[in-house]
Design brief:
alpha/beta, seven-stranded mixed sheet, five-stranded antiparallel sheet, binds pyridoxal-5'-phosphate
């Protein structure tokens, strides 16, 4: 492989590319992360260094790893066959087949898809579908409010951002879209208001009911929740939480939207986390794993009942009003079909369950007793490691120590890509579903070395000592 001139490339990036979420000074001092090639689980940067990618390319999109020829070929064939077929009343055959395939895989009565390019757009559609459903059905014609959860991330477009409670990302663009409110989420490690973990599920579900009553049930269109919250540091829900949430939503005719942008397509060991946690959503938002990052595509998948209401519409109001020029792009649909075919043939959700158990056990075995590690959590191929100053008291490490970003940096130096979670002392891992045992062993060994380096630093600087 011929490598580019890294200095010139870095300078061009600094001069002409606006990095999201990274300050120019940081890019300058840490170096720009510019990648040039990849294969399987490994990705190579512009300096020629190769990393084991435990984040499915930072955003958790590349569920199949790199270099899947069949997806590339499906994209090419669709491009030269029929690259675009319009939108709104038009659709290309491959997109119809994809919608049918998703309906076959999706749990419960989820039956019809509306497509777009990103998870943010799909959440926008989910909100619009919920509002228009209530309006067209006529029972709650003024229902427009959305309830989301503290610390949630649901996207960067204005409607999705309003549901987002990742403070750094929302506040800078306020005032945002009105009609959104947020409630506590069931964090079992740092429980809301320090309550006992056994009370968390009941409390958070009861809070949803209170919030619906407070907002006025006739105005509340939907409640959105990720099955496993990423923004809050990989939070796995208590067993009975979603059953309680479902019952409350039913009582007040509030739709339940499962944001499965990250958890969808095998990552939790089932096709969807809604199966893993028996969620029974009315609407499910999908992205990332739908095409494994080979090309942008997302979907909002709606239940049979919502689909009937939106499709039939009413003479006064019309039918579902929403669409983009590139909704349901056939090239993306062809990529998605090839991607799902590979997942199905290789039974990758089952591999994620098997390798996930191996990974979670190995991670716990190797790092859970480390004095800097407060909690190791997750399910299947989603894991989070939270660092603490005091393991027993769960005292958070001072954020000024920048422990998580430093640990992330040491992982990179060990040739391992993880992700330090903003505003938290935690690191997360979401490897491709194709990972094998020896790769897991190697990853955990590298992570342990990086953790030891961080520990030495903190001890030497006198900023931390083992309790
Ligand atoms: N929802 C969740 C849970 C996400 O994690 C993300 C992005 O990471 C989104 C929505 C937004 O997706 P996108 O970045 O594709 O717009």
């Amino acid at each position: 492989m011929t490598l580019p001139n890294i200095d010139a490339l870095t300078q061009d990036a600094l001069d002409h590319y606006l990095f999201p979420l990274a300050r120019k000074d940081d890019v300058r001092s840490d170096g720009a992360n510019i990648f040039v090639a990849a294969e399987g689980l490994e990705i190579t940067d512009a300096a020629g260094k190769t990393y084991l990618d435990m984040m499915s390319t930072q955003t958790r999109a590349s569920s199949l790893g790199y270099g899947q020829d069949r997806i590339a070929k499906a994209i090419y064939d669709q491009l030269v066959g029929l690259h675009y077929g319009g939108t709104f009343a038009n659709v290309v055959d491959v997109t119809v087949r994809l919608a049918a395939k998703i309906a076959e895989l999706a749990p419960g009565t989820l039956t019809a898809s509306v497509f777009a390019g990103s998870g943010s757009e799909a959440n926008e559609m989910s909100f619009k579908a919920a509002k228009q459903y209530h309006r067209l059905k006529g029972d709650k014609p003024r229902a427009h409010k959305i309830i989301a959860r503290w610390n949630a991330y649901h996207g960067a477009t204005m409607g999705a951002l309003a549901a987002t409670d990742y403070l750094g990302t929302r506040h800078i663009t306020e005032p945002g879209v009105p009609g959104y409110s947020h409630i506590p989420s069931p964090n079992l490690y740092r429980t809301p208001f320090g309550m006992d973990a056994s009370e968390v599920s009941e409390f958070c579900a009861a809070y949803l009911e209170q919030q619906i009553l407070h907002e006025g049930p006739e105005y509340v269109a939907a409640f959105i929740a990720e099955p496993i919250m990423q923004g809050d540091g990989v939070q796995v829900p208590p067993d009975d939480y979603f059953a309680r949430v479902r019952a409350i939503c039913d009582t007040y005719d509030v739709l339940l939207i499962a944001d499965e942008v990250i958890t969808g397509f095998g990552r939790t060991g089932n096709w969807f986390a809604s199966e893993t946690y028996d969620i029974k959503p009315d609407i499910m938002t999908l992205a990332k794993g739908l095409t494994s990052g080979y090309i942008p595509m997302s979907a909002s998948v709606i239940s049979e009942e919502i689909w009937q209401v939106l499709m039939n519409g009413t003479p006064e109001v019309g039918a579902f009003a929403h669409g983009y020029t590139y909704s349901a792009h056939p090239v993306a649909a062809a990529a998605a079909m090839a991607n799902l075919d590979i997942m199905e043939r290789e039974n990758l959700p089952a591999n994620a369950a098997r390798m996930g158990t191996y990974f979670q056990n190995k991670l716990r075995q190797e790092v859970a007793d480390h004095p800097l590690v407060g909690d190791v959590r997750g399910v299947a191929l989603i894991a989070g490691v939270e660092l603490v100053a005091d393991k027993v008291k769960k005292t958070p490490l001072d954020m000024d120590l920048k422990a998580a970003p430093t640990l992330g940096k040491y992982c990179v130096e060990e040739g391992l890509i993880s992700r330090a979670l903003m505003q938290m002392n935690a690191l997360s891992f979401s490897p491709p579903l194709v990972i094998n045992e020896s790769e897991v062993d190697e990853v955990v060994a590298r992570f342990r070395r990086a953790l030891n380096r961080l520990t030495d630093d903190l001890v030497k600087s006198g900023s931390w000592k083992a309790q």
